[in-house]
C-alpha cells in the first residue's frame, strides 16, 4: 500500500471528484481464501453507502481494511485525493468512527465514560452529552452498560461513535438484534446524520431506505454497485442471496 500523505489537503484545493474516501482495487487474502477480490469504491462526502452480501462475502473485512485492522495484499485507499494508510489508533483523528457488531463497551466504565472515549476535542464532555442526548440515552449516563437492555447498549455504541463528530461514520450491523421500532429510530438517525455513512447491514429494508448507493459483495467480489432501486432488481444480487440460502 502507499504510505500516508504528510499534510491533509485543504477542501478548497480539492476537485469534487477527489473529495471523500476512495478504495482502489483492494484485494485481501487470508491464506488460500480470497476475502476481497479487486474491490473499488468511491464514497463522496455526505453520502450513505451500504455494503451488503451474503455471510462471508467480505463486508467486515472491507471495514477492517478501511480501519487499518487488515492490510490488503494489493490496492490503495485515498482520503480527499491523497494516499491514506489507515492506522486504528489514528482513525478518530482522521475523522473516522466505527461501531462494532453487537455491543463493544468497557464494562467497568459508566455509559458517559464509554462515550467520552469516543469524544476527541477539548469540548469532549459537551460532545459526549450531546451524543448521549441525540441517541436518547442521556438518562443512563451514570449506569454501567451491562445493566442496560441490549437496544440501549446499541444506542450507547452509536453515541460513542457520534461523540467523535466523525466525517465518516462506519456502522457494522447496527440493526442486529433490534426490534422494528428501534430500527425505525436508527433509520432516522442515519438519514439525519450530517456526515458520510458506511453501512454494513443484513436488514434489507433499512439498507434500501437509507442508502444512496449500495455495493454488493459475493465471495469477496463486487457484483453490483448502484442506487437501491437498481440493486433491488439486479438478478446477480438475487442469485447471490438465493445461492446463499440454498
Ligand atoms: N482473520 C481472518 N482469518 C482468516 N479468515 C478470515 C479472517 N477474517 C475473515 N475471514 C474469512 O474471510 C471471509 C470474509 O469474512 P467477513 O467477515 O469479511 O465476511 P462478512 O461479509 O462480513 O460476513 P458476515 O455477514 O457473516 O459478517 C470469510 O470466509 C471469513 O471466514
UniProtKB/TrEMBL annotation:
Residue span, ABC transporter domain: 21-244
Keywords: ATP-binding, Nucleotide-binding, Transport
Alphabetical list of CDD domains matching this protein: ABC_Mj1267_LivG_branched
InterPro entries: AAA+_ATPase, ABC_AA/LPS_Transport, ABC_transporter-like_ATP-bd, BCA_ABC_TP_C, P-loop_NTPase
Keyword field contains Membrane: no
A Pfam family: ABC_tran
Keyword Plastid (UniProt): no
SMART domains reported in the protein's UniProt record: AAA
Protein name: ABC transporter ATP-binding protein
Organism annotation: Paractinoplanes deccanensis
Gene field: livG
